[in-house]
Design goal:
The complex is a heterodimer of chains A (115) and B (114). Chain A has strands spanning 3-5, 10-14, 19-21, 24-26, 32-39, 45-52, 60-61, 64-69, 74-79, 88-96, 104-105, 109-114. With 115 residues, chain A is mainly beta. In chain A, strand 8 (64-69) and strand 9 form a beta hairpin. Chain B is mainly beta. In chain B, strands 2, 4, 5, 6, 9, 10 and 11 form a seven-stranded mixed β-sheet that branches. Classes of the chains: A mainly beta (115), B mainly beta (114). Chain A binds chain B through residues 32-33, 35, 37, 39, 42-47, 50, 52, 89, 91, 95-98, 100-105, 107-108, and chain B through 33, 40-45, 48, 55-56, 58, 88, 90, 92, 99-100, 102-105, 107-108.
């Protein structure tokens, strides 16, 4: 069974700095997909970025990038030049490539960006 | 506007009642999901539908039953609610059943069981 672990529960940073959010995963599949989602204070869940297990290059979207370390089963989310509106709960998620697979989420990490 | 819509936003009911939640997506996606988010923010999949067909049915009590009339709609009925059913129920959709596709979430329905 797949498992996603986020050890950080709460992170506080000052705006315009860079923050890294950690995530490790477990899977027996050779093909899988890793995602990061953000849940705002209003409850809205938004997809941020994805990493395909077979790709060596780290994914980058806007000021979000990933640090994919496959041997360590690790997929960190890096947010550069943080803004107040980045304050939210961030979820790491994984889905195996097999038929019938489901998206499994970590417990989430709350990011607070202050002025 | 293309998105995932859920009704109602909130629902308060008493133990033993039946409730129904609606979800509609206008993204043209083939696949829809129901998730439960508990008070600790844990997100767990309940059901997955692809083109009106049930694909995934997690270990969910039998009082929960999803219903899909077409690929744009996925409703959730809870027959005889229990206190532990208090949670936020989130509907989501993705382009199709492929694992690589990101999911788009609705705003959620917050259920409180008294």
């Amino acid at each position: 069974a797949q498992k996603v672990t986020q050890t950080q529960t709460s992170i506080s940073v000052v705006e315009k700095t860079t923050v890294t959010m950690d995530c490790v995963y477990e899977t027996r599949d050779s093909s899988y997909f890793l995602f990061w989602y953000k849940q705002t204070a209003s409850g809205e869940i938004v997809f941020l970025i994805r990493q395909d297990s077979y790709k060596k290059e780290n994914a980058t979207v806007g000021h979000y990038s990933l640090n994919f370390q496959k041997p360590k089963s690790s997929i960190g989310l890096i947010i550069t030049a943080t803004q107040i509106e980045d304050s939210a709960v961030y979820f790491c998620a994984m889905r195996d490539g097999g038929t019938g697979s489901k998206l499994s989420f970590g417990k989430g990490a709350k990011l607070t960006v202050s002025p | 506007e293309t998105a995932v819509f859920q009704t109602p936003n909130y629902h308060v009911t008493q133990v033993g009642n039946e409730v129904s939640f609606n979800c509609k997506q206008t993204l043209g996606h083939d696949t829809m999901y129901w998730y439960k988010q508990d008070s600790k923010k844990l997100l767990k999949i309940m059901f997955s539908y692809n083109n009106k067909q049930l694909i995934v049915n997690e270990t969910v009590p039998r009082r929960f039953s999803p219903q899909s009339s077409d690929k744009a709609h996925l409703n959730l009925r809870i027959k005889s609610v229990e206190p532990e059913d208090s949670a936020v129920y989130l509907c989501a959709s993705s382009l199709n059943w492929g694992s690589s596709y990101e999911q788009y979430f609705g705003p959620g329905t917050r259920l409180t069981v008294l």
